[in-house]
Amino acid sequence: METFYLFLVIFLFVLAVFDLSVGVSNDAVNFLNSAIGSRAASFKTIMVIAAIGIFVGASLSNGMMDIARHGIYQPQHFFFSEIMCILLAVMLTDVVLLDIFNSLGMPTSTTVSLVFELLGGTVALSLVKIANSNGALQLGDLLNTDKAFTVILAIFLSVAIAFFFGSVVQYISRLIFTFNYKKHTKYFIALFGGLAATSILYFMLIKGLKESSFMTGNLKELIYGNTSMVVWGAFIFFTILMQILHWLKVNVFKIIVMLGTFALALAFAGNDLVNFIGVPLVGYSSYMDLMAQGGTTTTDTFLMGSLLAPAQTPWYFLVGSGLVMVIALATSKKAHNVVKTSLDLSRQSEGNESFGTSPVARMLVRTCNNASSTILSVVPPKVKDWIDSRFNNDEIILEDKASFDLVRASVNVVLSGLLIALGTSLKLPLSTTYVAFMVAMGSSLADRAWGRESAVYRITGVLSVIGGWFITAGAAFTICFLVAIVIHFGGIAAMAAMVGLAVYMLIRSQIAYKKKMKKEALKEEVNTTVAKLRDTTDSREALSLFREHSREELQSVLLFTADALDRSVHGFMNENLRELRKVLNEIEEKKIHLKQVKRVGTLGVTHLEHDIAVEKGLYYYQGNDFASEIIFSVRRLTEPSKEHVDNNFSPLNDIQKEDFSKMTESIITYLKRCAVMIETNDYHRLDDVIVESVSLTNQLTALKKGELKRIQGQSGSTKVSMVYLNMVQEAQNVVSFTANLVKVSRKFQKE
């Protein structure tokens, strides 16, 4: 039995590697958001600084491991086999749950997920033990209920406090520096920089390194016994240093943002490492304690009182974890996806919003608008004008492609660090995710980044993320509770089944994520064109960009249509329901993409000269409409085919199959020829394409007539004939719309 548990401990460490990479993907938003959003440095530089912070923090971590050893359960009342059951349930739940949130691009708290998983697993085993103890044990004997309530309280507090202080501090900072911050730096930058750098140092010492393994008793006494002297000394030193750097033309805000990024990454790795490797380390420690008994006890009789002792984590586990986290940060696309959600909700400009609207968001916007109007009515006009002048973002200084400026980025990192340090000193288990995200949201609100056109979308997004946090807690508790029960009563067979299920879910999640990334790539393509059009001031260059974009999109639609038509027709003929469903899903995605492409048209027209805009804009919209009609025709062809196969109706007869297969091949060749014509922008053989479209239309009409004769002769199934006639008609529509598309494209591209 001991050999089986050895394999189980090894498996826990394998899961920990997954958990580390998944956890870094999720928590990357905490320390990357400000630096990436403000473009404080190149992406590689930001990642290197964050990676160093993570590695140092992980290597020095140790003190927080006790939460997994005895923070939630009372280990002296649990046998070795029961502890291992809880630990396996926690790790399986944690990996799958965090991966789901990352794939959705939603930041969540690894601290809360770990605590509630431990809580769920412990409650499950506790109820079993209480039921078998004949009243000897109570829930309070087996569970640390105070810890769970403290975490729940901290969730509510951290969300509200971080948002409030993020708004207030950013509002004051913007009043001081304005959006044209370089104009006002000579008066305040030394004080601001000194305060910020001192705050970051304080945060690193209090939150980041307080429980680190290198912090000996003497060093702790020296630092924490003279905290005020250390802080004042640091403030004076950093204030002088920042003034000197400013005189040397160094952008102090960039220094602050990068320092803050390093500090947040260090604190994240140092304090949140327990969320990822704490559970496997408890399993390892428990197994070593069992082996130390020399066979005098069994897995079902050995009580785990040894877990009450403080954790002594071997250094190689910490260094190894740091390496895994650094590699995960550098390679994880999901980390970039989670950062994108936070940046979308806090960017200064309007754009393609990631979230829709909701009734709650609409109500909040109305309430805030009314409250704002009431407050403004009593504010003296001169004060109002002065405030408006400080918030005039016409002169905003933004780095290339930045979501917000360096002033807001500095406030985000400094305030996040200070609030987390404050929470630690008050013994409140604040989540780095909650604080960092809500400070960013509060500062973006204060910066007037949520305008009337975007507020309802941004609030919906924030509510979605906050809702996701609470769902994390509930889901973590419930899933881990059920998994622990199944493993406890099912034994080794249940463990194997649960491991298999978790692996299967992770693979499914990866496949789903890859599909989502394909959609994101299409969105990014559109957004890149929008950015280029927005940046250009030359109307000729705008027209050239506009034309290039149109060629790429129309060619893409025709190639997509050729592929979808081919798969749809053969899927129907081979009665392949799965293929037909896939085609329909892809058609829906293409429809959404074409809607976004229309946005580019609206923006593109505004950058053209008036006369050209009227003429070329009309052709662009016509081309887009024909492209949409082609996609709709393929959908109208595929839907009845899918329904027919789904209902197991009779298939096409051999004559119908042969006739339509030949026509499909001809139509696909025609579509590809048109795509090449648009791509190369060479329309000298347009007349041949028109002749070919007429020929194809006539052939399809002949197929319809032939089928109508068969219906009259009452040969074959009526249902099959209806679907067949629909396919022929929609294929005819594809041919005629494509001919119109090519004609309009030529007019649009013509000089």
Structural account:
Residues 348-353 have low confidence and may be disordered. α11 (252-272) packs parallel to α17 (406-425). This protein has two domains: 2-519, no CATH class; 536-749, Phosphate transport system protein phou homolog 2, domain 2 (Methane Monooxygenase Hydroxylase, Chain G, domain 1), CATH 1.20.58.220. The N and C termini lie far apart (81 Å). Helix content is 80%, strand content 0%. The protein has 751 residues and is mostly helical. It has helices spanning 2-38, 43-60, 66-71, 80-104, 110-132, 139-142, 145-177, 185-208, 217-225, 227-247, 252-272, 274-291, 315-331, 333-346, 359-378, 381-390, 406-425, 432-446, 455-535, 539-573, 577-606, 610-646, 654-680, 686-712, 718-749. The protein is flat. InterPro entries: Phos_transporter (IPR001204). Residues 570-600 form a coiled coil. Keywords: Coiled coil, Membrane, Phosphate transport, Transmembrane, Transmembrane helix, Transport. The chain crosses the membrane at residues 6-24, 45-65, 77-98, 110-128, 148-166, 187-209, 229-248, 255-278, 313-331, 462-485, 491-507.
